[in-house]
Specification:
Number of strands: 24
Order of helices and strands: EEEEEEEEEEEHEEHEEEEEEEEEEE
Helix content: under 10%
Largest sheet: 5 strands, mixed
């Protein structure tokens, strides 16, 4: 198997129906009863090769992405061969999959006997079950269609709402913000993006797994869901973005991006832009300025990226772009109160 960073490949071959425990979480996040690989695969596909206990004729194939929505693969291909070192033959050509669905495919009639199976998952994601059948009951056969007619059938039962680990929420009103600001001494370093000092989310393009407002919580992160995480994207040149508004305008010296609990699902690349930076433009003169050009950040998984600015700048809004998607625990704008 090329990758099983989120869920074990052997789950794909389970003879049991998949289960979803809303409260079951581990260090990698939600524990899934499926095969799930990590984000941002740089190869065309993740792959799994396994051997049948007994060589068999295969006439029907079922694919399931049950309980995966937003992190399912874009497409799957199934290949087979009669023995090791033989040429792979395509059983199911690359076929598009939807989230939380099943696709049942009838193969062209043949009497080939296969020993080894290869599953290709484009480009990555979660595939719940694979079924390979030589024969089926008549009532079930009618659900299997030839590849050009087979459709993604959404499961009728909804995905249970996950009961995520505790994530402390920070609530503050304008009076408390002013009181917090008065307690900061002149010359003291302070994070003005923090909710405690009036930082606020102005827009967020995708909050599929967790709300963007957590990235500016004054509390240190305690788990993967204590941050902002978008769904896996499949569009070319895609990006997601969060825009933070700053209430207390002071010269910013450092910007910190915290990926403490994002190890396999932090962004592949990231860029930063600011509004109203060069000596504090006003009105129509405001413009977005690139602070950090698109930079690979996969290596910062489970760590922090700190950008030390050459000169302190005034920032009224900060735009964080992640390419193509991913998660961030905290974003901090650090300066000294004047």
């Amino acid at each position: 198997v090329s990758n099983q960073g989120f869920a074990r490949a052997e789950n794909l071959l389970s003879s049991h129906l998949p289960v979803f425990d809303p409260e079951l979480y581990g260090r990698q996040g939600k524990i899934m009863d499926s095969w799930e690989s990590v984000r941002h695969n740089q190869e065309p596909a993740d792959s799994l090769i396994f051997e049948l206990r007994k060589p068999a004729i295969i006439n029907y194939v079922s694919l399931s992405t049950k309980y995966h929505l937003g992190n399912h693969p874009q497409a799957v291909q199934v290949e087979a061969r009669p023995e090791a070192n033989a040429e792979w033959q395509i059983l199911v050509p690359k076929t598009e999959l939807a989230g939380h669905c099943s696709k049942k495919i009838k193969l062209s009639a043949n009497n080939n006997i296969y020993q080894q199976i290869k599953v290709l998952m484009f480009p990555d994601g979660g595939l719940t079950r694979l079924g390979l059948y030589e024969s089926l009951p008549d009532l079930e056969i009618k659900n299997f269609l030839e590849i050009h007619s087979a459709r993604n059938i959404i499961f009728e039962d909804p995905i249970p709402h996950p009961k995520k680990p505790l994530t402390p929420k920070f609530h503050v009103n304008p009076t408390q913000i002013e009181a917090n600001w008065l307690r900061v001494a002149r010359g003291q370093e302070v994070d003005v993006a923090s909710l405690a000092y009036g930082g606020h989310i102005m827009s967020a393009s995708n909050e599929h797994y967790s709300p963007a407002t957590q990235v500016i919580s004054p509390y240190p992160p305690i788990n993967m869901f204590d941050g902002s995480e978008s769904a896996r994207s499949r569009e070319k040149n895609h990006h997601e973005e969060v825009v933070i508004g700053i209430q207390k305008i002071i010269p910013i010296e450092k910007i910190e991006i915290d990926f403490t609990y994002f190890r396999n699902n932090n962004p592949f690349e990231l860029s930063l832009e600011s509004l109203g930076t060069a000596s504090g433009e006003k009105g129509q003169n405001k413009k977005w300025t690139v602070l950090l050009p698109k930079k690979p950040v996969k290596a910062y998984a489970g760590n922090k990226l700190r950008l030390d600015l050459k000169e302190p700048i005034l920032i009224e809004q900060l735009k964080i772009k992640v390419f193509p998607d991913g998660g961030i625990n905290r974003i901090r704008l650090l300066g000294r109160k004047t």
